[in-house]
Each structure stands twice: as structure tokens, then as C-alpha cells.
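EI: anyone free to look at a 147-residue chain?
SC: sure, send it
EI:
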Amino acid sequence: MTATDRSIELTRAAAQAAADKLAHDIIAYDVSDVLSITDTFLVASAPNDRQVRAIVDAIEESLLKELGAKPVRREGERDGRWVLLDYVDIVVHVQHSEERVFYALERLWKDCPEIELPADAVATRGKAAAHAQATAAAEAEAEGELR
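SC: here you go
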């Protein structure tokens, strides 16, 4: 069994909305062969809680406006560290970069086929690592100035 056309359409629209809000490392998997509860997982991350919430809001708004889809469940919004949007056909995970590294969802689903995403979403791959390096360099520089 493979993901339905509708679930792929929702996944791609959600990925584009996430990319538009500068999400990092957007990736999607067709999990329909291993899970009976959903067809696809979309995973994205952001370096801070505020951006996680902005990405989630953008995805929700985009899917409602463009495709008439509303999530049946939204979890984790209060902390803004890992927000889950459940659309039944797709499940969207937007994680703070630290949670993304710790939980490593890609490791769990690496055997599932990746879903082809819009170019803007694919271009986000590796941005979390680049952001972490830039932040570490800026912190090191600031620390050196304080001494």
C-alpha cells in the first residue's frame, strides 16, 4: 500500500508552508506500509520555540485555505518544543532543533520511502547544522569579547 494522492498533496503543501516560514531540514516519509493510522509523516524543525509555533500556524493556515483540511488533533503547542498536527492522512511534526536531534525521528522511519517535496523544502536540508555552527561561533566570539 502506498500513500494516497490526497495525503501526498497535503504533505507537499505543508512542506511548502514550513519552508516559507524558514523551517530547517524538512523531510517526509510514506509510512503507509508500516502504520495503519496514517499515510505520511512530515518532519521539520526550527531553532526556537517562537519559530516552531509560527511554522505550525503557517501549515495549519495553508492547508485550511488551499485544501480545506483541518487537523483533528494538535498537541504540544504550550511548550513549543514539539508540536504535532494530526490530519489523519498525514501527521506533521515540528520540533525545536534540540528535540529533533534527541528524538531522531528520521532514524525510526529511515526504511520508509521518502516523499518528493517542493524545491524550497528540499533546500532546507542541512540548515539546522549550519545554524548551530553559526550560533556556536557567535557565542564563542561574544565570550571572547567578555574576557
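EI: The helical segments are 5-20, 49-67, 97-103, 105-109, 119-122, 127-146.
SC: 👍
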